[in-house]
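Hi team,

Filling in the usual template for the complex we talked about on Friday. All components are listed, including any nucleic acid strands or ligand strings, so the model treats them as one assembly.

SUBMITTER: L.P.
PURPOSE: interface mapping
COMPONENTS: two
RESIDUES: 1032
SEQUENCES:
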Amino acid sequence: MTDLLETTALGLDGPAVERHGGFTISENADLALASLALRRDGTDPAPFGLTLPGPGGWVQGGGIAAFWTGPGQWMVEAPGGAARDFAGELKSACPDASVTEQTDGWIAFEIQSHAGANAITGLVEKLVNVDTGRICPGFATRTGLEHMSVFVIRRSEENLAVIGMRSAAGTLWHALTHAAARIQEGSA
Amino acid sequence: MTQLSGGLIDRGRTIRFRFDGKDYQGHPGDTLASALLANGVTLMGRSFKYHRPRGVFSAGSEEPNALVELRTGARREPNTRATVVELFDGLEASSQNRWPSLKHDFMAVNDLFANFFAAGFYYKTFMWPRAFWEKIYEPAIRKAAGLGSLSFQADPDAYDKGFLHCDLLVIGGGAAGLAAALTAGRAGARVILADEDFRLGGRLLAETHLLDGAPATRWIDRVQAELDSLPNVRVMTRTTVWGAFDHGVYGAVERVSDHLPDPNGAVRQTLWRITAQRTVLAAGATERHIPFANNDRPGVMLAGAVRAYANRWAALPDGPVAIFTNNDDGHRTALDLAEKGVTIAGVVDARPDARSLGRYQLFAGGMVTDTKGRHGLTRIEVAQNGQTTWLDCGALGVSGGWNPNVHIASHHRGRPVWDDGLQAFVPGEGGPVGLSAAGAAAGQGATGAALASGAAVAQAALAAIGVDAALPDLPQAESEFTAPHPVWHVPGKGRAWVDFQNDVTVKDVKLAHQENLRPVEHLKRWTTLGMATDQGKTANVTALAVMAELTGQSIQNTGTTIFRPPYTPVSMSVLGGGDTGANFRPRRLTPTHKWAKAQGAVFIEVGQWMRAQYFPRPGETTWRQTVDREVLATRKGVGICDVTTLGKVDVQGADAAEFLDRIYANAMKSLKVGMVRYGLMLREDGHACDDGTCARLADDHYVVTTTTAQAGPVYRHMEYARQCLWPELDVQLISTTDAWAQIAIAGPNARKLLERVVDGVDLSNEAFPIMACASLTVCQGLRARLFRISFSGELAYELAVPARYGNALIQRLIEVGADLGAVPYGTEALGVMRIERAMPQATS
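RESULT (copied from the run log):
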């Protein structure tokens, strides 16, 4: 176990959590990420027993989750696994695929609505150009947000995750909290 | 003033407002223009060039005359159309383009020299002497140009943006738009209904037509209630759809709190990007006028506007009202006004066979040939059968027919086509894909026809996307329509205005014709016709008809100018999307940013990144002193620099080596595992697009580094090569730029320092030679990658750890390297050291 201390993507000692009206936005600093890509003629693996989703999909099970990122490519999530070598574990589980550590390539912000699913829809409309009619639980896509490339995942009716590049965490945090606060003000 | 009974204003409540420093009162439901009229104010502005007194001309967003500076201080907004300003308590507005006052404007002297200011006078007058242009002419023209003035203060308000998707976008909430939305809403389609007004109904609000024998507002209210109850329908009032863009995308601005005295920090306007599968353009029509001598006095208005002010806002200019028309719709104004007890001075109908539709004096085959009234209309001259008569009146309603609002249907280079039967341009081919016009926008302006058209067009639009929609029961409404008699202007010697906002007269159009500037695009630029905030909505068709008359060409062949967004003015603030300052664009911070900031680093923008440029210490008074110290310390001991910003691309696959061989100018297949090679990357056309290192971690696993600036483009190029050029290769790519914090450790003591943090790896020259790389652990078990590469000519390494540990690592390196002379250095020292060793650097 290293004796170096972690710094969060927002430059803090611990994950940020803020509540804005009907939303709680929290930094998911413990989320491990690893990309999984099929080699030529490879068949879809089932890491840790999870059946990987198709385009636009996000699934969870067996302590991990995954979303589709391109033909034959997925991002695999391991909640609580950031401190360990999750990419190494995934490679062991899928030895025939290409696996790359992505944990610190990204920062995941989890948005929880306390005002129901419609509030999530209202927030999404202010953030990304994605048809809210498609953003049902289990939906994931890559899209643009304030000139940044992000993944948007609808984890449940009341939960949305926005995963953006770690280096721009401050800009992304501002965008999310600002939009949520405006909905709180009722001026959206 | 003439205040009438009725109207759609709430007389139970009073709103106080101020115009040109004087206090007035209005009511909820008023616009600034209607409230001013109700208070007897007809003089609202001065014209652009001649500073002629001007009053409100229209009752909508097409207004060319009644432009004011709205609000005060930083919120002052020039050139605001009083006809679309929803009255709010405490509103302050002032007239513009006058000095010292609206009533007494010294610049009106321009009007005496009108002959010198004819079309193209800039181009003709300021040709000589040449030296005068920059020093005298241009400054003078710039000073005189424009109407309102900016506050020159930062916009204090908040703006927002958002994205909406729907099956059917309905633009306009009048008869056709409501029928379309109702049809689609009941069918379960996802519908957005947007209307620029603060109340649904469109022209129905201005008319006295009965729907099913009852006032139109009853039907409107019923439909609105039903639409509001449907979860699949979104009704957006105060929302102007201002442009069509590619792929069914429409720009819309919602004026969220423009109608409030102060947004109090809330969003003022929201820019919506609406993606619609299909669109119904139900934007209505704009009435056109008939130019005649001195037709620009306050009190001369569009006949439909006179009717709107009377019916919706219960206000009119003082005195009898006359009508000048070439169609039956002008008579409708006279009938409505007479019904309200307004004295009708007479109806001048250009049609020789015109017949009276009510109890008023009719001048069949007549023309209005002149007017009187210094600051407001007092008399009009009527010519009929060779006789002239002067009529006393306070207002004149002019109706030359209606132009369908084809603008958004004509974006994407759609060209409207002339319909002889309607005597109007209607939407033609080539406009936005998936858009169909309905109602008055399609030439179906009679209420009954508009209702039926809206429903039918919506039904057809939905059928095209597989949605079956039944036609709703629509109310019984009048459907009479007569095309206007083609009278485009009244011949005469006096100046007859075509474009009020730009002071373009019939004489100017004739001059353009005489000077061979006959194509409409040339006409526009020579005369300034159709420019500025109204974009000639009340002028363009009339002007090109006059040109057609002069050339002998048909109106169709004369054609229109190109229609472009925005349909009505859109503020730069809302187009900016809201964020300004630090959040105007993404800002990327390195993993060691927190530590560097604590050390007092001076940062520099490198693309979106903020990099430490140098680390000043107490006593250093210039950047040069700091950089010199950092360079010397690195050369002598060991320097440490965050180089995370350089791009990193993980390359894996059985054909990774072959792939890299193809994108680099030099070979990478021969690179041994555990070694790094410098490479020059080429595009497929041979263009050198980047340089960097390529490290081989395993037979089928490489890590490519790029320059900071090219990280994105190189990754994009590699994906292009992988997916499009050589899809047969077994290669997988992913960016790891942000994933790893990468620290350069350079200088003669670099190895000694590294040995203090690396876990049990032999870093001797033999075991870890120049250009070696390895995966290892540091600081008791943290996974890391070490590269022995140098970009400053020293003994140097780059150490990469997961980004979250970067801040702690650089702190540790400085701490444990204190006795080795470890110092941080920034990009400036890096550049100096590279230049000293004759190595290329980013700026070279």
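MY TAKE: Residues 169-185 of chain A form the longest helix (17 residues). The mean pLDDT of chain A is 95.

Thanks, L.
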